[in-house]
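Hi R.,

Quick one: here's the YiaA/YiaB family protein sequence you asked about.
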Amino acid sequence: MNPQTTSQPVAQQTSAAFIGASWAALLTGFAAFNIGLWNAEMAINEKGYYFTVLMYGLFAAISVQKSVRDRLEGIPVTNLYYGISWVSVLLTVALLSVGLWNATLTLSEKGFYAMSFVLTLFAAIAVQKNTRDSLHSSKSEQFRD
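And here's the predicted structure, written out as C-alpha cells:
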C-alpha cells in the first residue's frame, strides 16, 4: 500500500535558455520594428503613430500579464484595471491593424510590422513572467534559509 502524502507542488525555476530566448525575442522584435520604422519612407507623424502603438502595446501586454498573475496568486486587482488592461491590448492590435490596412505600404512591409509587433508583445509577456518567477523563487529561497 502506498501511504498518502500531502506534498505541495514544487515550483520549477525557469531555465536560462528560456530566459535568454525571451529576451532575444523581445530585443529582436523591438529592434526590427524600430529599424523598419527608421528606414521607412513615411511621414514622421506616421512613424510616431506606429512607435506609440508599439509602446502602448508593450505596456498593455505587461499589465495584462501582471493582472492575471496577481489574481492567480490572490493579490487583489480591481475589475476596472483588469478590464482596461485587456481593452488596451485589443485596442493596440486594432490600432495597428487599421493603420496598416490604410497604409501605402507593400504587403510584405505590412506583414513585417504586424509580425514584429506580435513577437514583441509576446516576448514582453514572457520576460515579465520570467522576472516575476525569478523574484518569487528568490523570495521563497530566503524563507527556506
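The mean pLDDT is 87.

Cheers,
M.
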